[in-house]
């Protein structure tokens, strides 16, 4: 089951014109506020009729301006999760969840109440009312309600935007479980790089209604050409790792394609796959293997590309094993090190510079 979007629609200030594919997993629509993300997701949901183009889901036409096909919302079989949970305050958690079951087509396959409650950690909350839930718990109920409608596609429009940092950290592991276990495509709207890095398997970057980059998350986020859209302080790369060991001094050892990383202890078993986001500003470079330094993480690789950043800065893209990294340094440092594509380089990353929120399930 995959989603194909190729639509155009006039908006205030610019014309929306986007085309992309959303395969199974989480496809993040990323961009600044006003880029057109919510317009796209509303067009997929059937809440907005584009002026031109078509939308396909699993080969079925949801919308086609040429043939005048425009399936109504209830026939598209999509689940929609908004910024706020929009729960019924007079119903219990269980009753809110089962409300979604009313919209499931007869005979449609999907998880039952017990499976959804287990997946989203709601089993002990079923008799509570929404007023007794935290913001993160309310969003988990809203997601569960959408899942119980047995959708073919899940739409999520900035579901964490209204939550504080603590509540976001609470719900992100459940969204990772949803991504890995639900077995359906998820179109996820966000302007948060941290959320996209944790959750997305593919990314579509929008700017003023246009797709400026689309592809696997690891490739898009490590593209130096995307630094302008992502922001200098948020620019970085995502590495896939496997937990190799937990050490008695409180560190976890991770195996990546280019070597190993040491991070503060992770609550995941040995052998588990995980994702690590490393910010460009936290990566130092050396042309010789560093000795006598406190940093434990040293990955050998080579320079792929070198781009000027804003002011005196430069963005260097590195390949370490099969992974791509970004490093933000000054142009003066790049000149002193004589960096150029193909230069052998060592990337140095402090263990404590990687935030716990930047490590998630693979």
What layout of secondary structure does this protein have?
Layout: E1 3-11, E2 14-22, E3 25-30, H1 37-45, E4 52-57, E5 60-64, E6 69-70, H2 73-76, E7 78-81, H3 93-101, H4 113-119, H5 135-148, E8 153-157, H6 165-181, E9 185-190, H7 193-199, E10 202-207, E11 210-216, H8 217-221, H9 227-230, E12 236-246, E13 251-256, E14 259-264, E15 273-279, E16 283-286, E17 297-308, E18 313-320, E19 323-330, H10 331-336, E20 344-349, E21 359-361
Parallel strand pairs: 3-9, 3-10, 7-8, 8-9
Antiparallel strand pairs: 1-2, 1-4, 4-5, 5-6, 10-11, 12-13, 12-15, 13-14, 15-21, 16-20, 17-18, 17-20, 18-19
Helix pairs in contact: 3-5, 5-6
Please, could you describe this protein's structure?
This protein has 10 helices and 21 strands. The chain is α+β, with helices and mostly antiparallel strands and 362 residues long. The strands form 4 sheets. Strands 7-8-9-3-10-11 form a 6-stranded mixed sheet, with helices on both faces. Strands 2-1-4-5-6 form a 5-stranded antiparallel sheet, with no helix packed on it. It has a 5-stranded antiparallel sheet with strand order 14-13-12-15-21. Strand 18 and strand 19 (323-330) form a beta hairpin. The two termini are 21 Å apart. The model has no long low-confidence stretch (mean pLDDT 92). Residues 292-358 form the Mop domain.
